[in-house]
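Anyone up for a design puzzle?
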């Protein structure tokens, strides 16, 4: 069937036209449409599969923590220490907050696992724990409610959901916190952490952590905190840091980072380029009209349509911020100003060139328009006779 369509479409075109046309267009409109549809379907499917696979691509486990540390031996690096997970599951850009799930991935060492040896065990912390977030490690922790409490009995006597298929390695308890985004922006002047840099902004939240054993008030060392992100259109990661002041116990800090995914950035760039292409098209039409070249009136009306379409296209950006991002100053603002000026010039030039009243002269007879084609002739007087004396 494809061959017959090709032959019928080719017969309708003369040989010189066939040689001049691109290879795809020689097949005719229907075959070209089918081929384009197949190619675009393959591209769309590939992009979609890649995008979905990039979200939540790795299940959290002890192996994931090891791969984050260049494949180091967990037993050698995290001997007798605790491993935590910080999962950012929601972002509120209006309130400038970040919602985080905290959970225990596992532990290493005989003092903190059920195994009784120096191996690392996922979901196997054997001591109770109180987790404090954004609290200075002083005596104030004794009068402050912990952010989360962990009881090893939940591992020894798990809830009924533990016995469901695929949930044996899932923590039995987790805690939620709502953290502010970089609240020290006036001091740091990190403009990239605000919507000014949309869609290339990097959102940060800084966390201080303290883990205590409530039975003897001893500090539980934290080996690492794995950052994760399950917010669609965002990529989550974390930077964990340990500091040991002179004469004090180690202190732990975490920087939670959120960045927009690559497809979101690409889509915003495509929108900005589209607005500029439409704006430059209106500018080109204006230049042509100023040089008194003819343009169809339908194309002239398109400038008004584009003027009202640009704000709607700007609003279609993912999580479109209020006006003021750097893409607005270099894109949207200039686009609207350019199209507004060009549209006004196009309207004024059309009134000047197409609706100017016809000029008349007094140097000849004036023809009266009509069916009988009458003509007004100049008035002539009879010669005045002079009486004879």
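Challenge accepted. My sequence:
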């Amino acid at each position: 069937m494809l061959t017959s369509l090709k032959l019928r479409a080719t017969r309708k075109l003369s040989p010189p036209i066939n040689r001049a046309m691109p290879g795809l267009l020689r097949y005719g409109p229907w075959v070209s449409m089918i081929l384009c549809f197949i190619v675009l379907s393959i591209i769309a499917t590939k992009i979609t599969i890649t995008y979905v696979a990039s979200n939540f691509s790795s299940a959290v486990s002890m192996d994931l923590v090891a791969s984050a540390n260049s494949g180091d031996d967990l037993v050698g690096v995290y001997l007798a220490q605790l491993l935590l997970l910080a999962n950012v599951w929601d972002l509120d850009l209006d309130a400038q907050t970040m919602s985080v799930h905290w959970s225990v991935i596992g532990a290493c060492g005989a003092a903190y696992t059920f195994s009784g040896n120096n191996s690392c065990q996922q979901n196997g912390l054997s001591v109770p724990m109180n987790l404090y977030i954004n609290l200075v490690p002083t005596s104030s922790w004794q009068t402050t409610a912990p952010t989360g409490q962990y009881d090893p009995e939940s591992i020894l006597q798990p809830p009924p959901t533990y016995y469901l298929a695929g949930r044996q390695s899932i923590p039995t308890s987790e805690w939620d916190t709502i953290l502010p985004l970089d609240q020290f922006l006036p001091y740091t002047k990190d403009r990239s952490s605000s919507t000014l840099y949309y869609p290339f902004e990097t959102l940060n939240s800084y966390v201080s952590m303290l883990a205590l054993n409530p039975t003897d008030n001893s500090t539980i060392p934290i080996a690492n905190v794995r950052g994760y992100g399950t917010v669609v259109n965002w990529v989550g990661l974390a930077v964990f840091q340990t500091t040991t002041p002179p004469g004090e116990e180690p202190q732990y800090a975490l920087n939670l980072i959120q960045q927009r995914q690559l497809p979101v950035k690409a889509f915003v760039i495509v929108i900005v380029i589209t607005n500029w292409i439409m704006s430059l098209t209106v500018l080109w039409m204006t230049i042509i009209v100023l040089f008194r070249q003819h343009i169809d009136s339908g194309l002239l009306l398109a400038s008004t349509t584009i003027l009202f379409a640009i704000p709607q296209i700007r609003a279609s950006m993912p999580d479109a911020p209020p006006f003021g991002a750097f893409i607005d100053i270099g894109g949207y603002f200039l686009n609207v100003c350019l199209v507004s000026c060009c549209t006004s010039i196009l309207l004024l030039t059309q009134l000047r060139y197409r609706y100017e009243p016809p000029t008349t002269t007094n140097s000849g007879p004036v023809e009266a328009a009509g069916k009988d084609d009458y003509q007004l002739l100049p008035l002539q007087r009879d010669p005045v006779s002079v009486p004879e004396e």
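A detail worth pointing out: Residues 2-54 form one domain.
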